[in-house]
Amino acid sequence: MKKPSAKRAGPAPVDTHLAAISPERAAQGSRLLAAVDSAQEEFDTHASNAPIRVVRRARADQKVRHRVATETTLKLSPEPTEALPKRVMAAVALDGQSEEPLASDAVSPPVARRILRSVFEGPGQAILCPLLDFALACLAVVLALGGFNAALRVSPDRFAGFALPGLVVLMLFMLGGYRGRLRLLVLDWLRLLVPGVTLATVALAVLDLLNNGEITDRSTWLRMWLITTVGLTCGRITLALFHRWARSRRLLAEPVLIVGAGLVGTRVARRLEAHPQYGLLPIGFIDDDEQSLFGSSGKSAPVLGTVDEIEQVLSATRARTVIVAFASATDSRISGLVRRCQRLGVQVSVVPRMFDAINDRVTYERLGGLPVLGFSSVDPHGWQFAIKHALDRSFAAVMLLILSPLLAAVALAVRLTSSGPTLFRQQRVGRDGKVFDLYKFRSMEWRGPTQTTPHDEYRIARLVASDTGPGGVERDQRLTRIGRVLRSLSLDELPQLFNVLKGDMSIVGPRPERPEFVEMFGRDIPRYHDRHRVRSGITGWAQVHGLRGPTSLVDRIEWDNYYIAHWSLGLDLKILILTAIAVFRGE
User: Fold this and answer.
1) Whose CA, among 202, 479, 510, 532, lies 20 to 30 Å from 153?
2) What is the torsional sign of CA 24, 26, 27, 28?
């Protein structure tokens, strides 16, 4: 007869935790708990107070007291380091009680999650992707030859195309197509896939020419290249969609420790929590600074230990990924931590110093055994951007010519359905701080030159004070019927092609803001004015990543400056494709 399982005991009382340590440390822990109780009562009015940050995600008093008691014991207990894993696991378990359950807990049991992670993440993914590409390439060869029966009648000695699947996998491996990445977009994959399939096809066609004295059936080679490219692309799209679905539900979530609980460390944790598509779930911090447990804003995961305790924390949490941010420990100790993690087979990623100055053009050199990174950038006033601006104007002229019937129809619809001008003009700040008139199709009821009411200005001020962009704060009641349609399809932005033709804007670039907002943001947001080094754009890198309307200003400025630092014509093309996909999805 199966013995009934014991009921899981709740957290031990606070006094039990504090009794296990010395009276002096227990008194210190009791004072900390009293501070937490006092902070809980003033939660809404003193959100920046240090103890409040510890209990931000655990409002219930009982859970707060248990969690803080555990963290107090972790930091104040004089027990030897060997006892650390039990305390770490207790902290993690108690921390999990104050959180909402992961979606993966309701969808899939832990065993199924482990199976999924072993197949679709890490070493499993490194095996799965080449096998999938090989199988799809074999199918492509068979289809190009006319089916299985036709393929069986072709002699392998007379047709080198049978080696295409293996050579494609080899080429993609050499081009870095199977290298592990946090997030690989399908567009990034195409940049590797098309050259890889092309090189493999051309190499085998040349071999066929040398073997037979001529290329056997050129149309067959062309079909093989086309079907292989399309087939492998469809396979990666399917795999990417599955990854996105599974990661959004935390079915594929790799636990990660962050070394450094300061501003950069909490920024990394916040980004990983907000974007599950990266497949990493921060479970805690490693830091020597005891005050960092309370002093960093926005942190939801606890400090689980110091730099010297990394092995015990890794063993207790079973984390196999570590991200090194800016920690309070010295560089020599952090270097030792990295080496110890590598010996344990833990994957280590590092947020480098001067990370905001690094771009894709960084070169790696050596001075003996000393690595040296070389930084380079593109001059916004140089010849590369001159080519970009010429292409912008040419593209705008062609699009205005092609879309002229649509523009006329939209203008007529706006004019007939509501009173007021067809085009809405508003001053915006562009390159080098130059003010220009931005054009849009009017989508709201006309209220004169000033379209914002005092109530709107008040809402904008509140949003900006909370690091939220002012875009899209107008009330929906002000939208006209045709205006709703125009905004849902982004057709109200089409007149900005005239701004591009005049040279005020580019097709791709940071979105322009009003002069009063520029003055306000420039005082409070670091590097805000750096985005005015280039012309403003109709669409941009921040916009295709969802940073539109009332979203974080700091994140938006970060993405805009990233675009400028990493600019290339290829990046512009990628943004245009992502914009078209977003419009098609109605985003």
Assistant:
1) 202
2) positive
424: closest CA among 434, 413, 414, 412?
414
- At position 186, the amino acid (one-letter code) is V
For residues 236 and 186, the answer to whether their CB atoms sit within 8 Å is yes
Report in angstroms the alpha-carbon separations of 260 from 301, 319, 367, 452. Answer: 12, 16, 29, 44
- Nearest Cα to Cα of residue 304 among 269, 344, 347, 261: 261
105-119, 462-476, 522-536 — most confident range: 522-536
Q: How far apart are CA 17 and CA 29, in angstroms?
A: 10
Diameter of the chain measured on Cα atoms:
92
Q: Mean of the per-residue pLDDT values for the chain?
A: 77
Cβ-based burial of 42 (10 A; exposed 0-12, middle 13-18, buried ≥19): exposed
> What tokens appear for 167 in the block?
């050579």
pLDDT of residue 253: 83
Q: Which two tokens stand for residue 319?
A: 């984390």
Of 16, 15, 63, 19, nearest to 37 by C-alpha is 63
Q: State yes or no: pLDDT of 22 exceeds 80.
A: no
Q: What is the pLDDT of residues 369-388, one digit of tens each?
A: 888 888 888 888 889 999 99
The two structure tokens encoding residue 390: 């010429």
